[in-house]
Please model this.
Amino acid sequence: MSNERSLLRNVLIIIGIIILGVSAYLLYGAIIMVNYMAYYHCMGMMCGMMMYYPLFLPVALLTVGVMMIITPIILIKPDGFSQGLSYEIGQRDAVESGSMAGNSDDYYGRVLKLLPKAEREVLEYVIKSGGEIFQYQIMRDLGLSKVQAWRIVHRLEEKGLLEVVKVKGRNIVRLKDFNKTN
Model:
């Protein structure tokens, strides 16, 4: 997906550059024509009010070309700047390459650097507690409200870093086991 986005970004920028080149060429011709019009106060049969019609198309193309370059740069981020944690892709690649088998501590160390502060604190706390803890303990020990703790744990669960298991009405928060084959 990110390769497709990078390809789309590059194609749009190249098209914008081509449009800018065409508009520069047309602008050069239009300026020569406007010079001619200003000298004779006419252009063919069109005499009278001086509206520089030959400039409309090059200026319009110039605007479109600039927008075709700026828009992909702003809206489509390159591969290294993707927002959030693309866990599914990273996990699949790491499992296929065999780098995650037995190296889950190293994996969590790298992931911790990418997380926002609150999520990082919760994940560190779960890791320090042996990989499994009750959700109310996270809330109590980190000074979070019930809702804050639930939301943070839920976000980490959505990212695939934690799993939540209900036992007798209480949530047990566990680190995701990457060595299991599903």
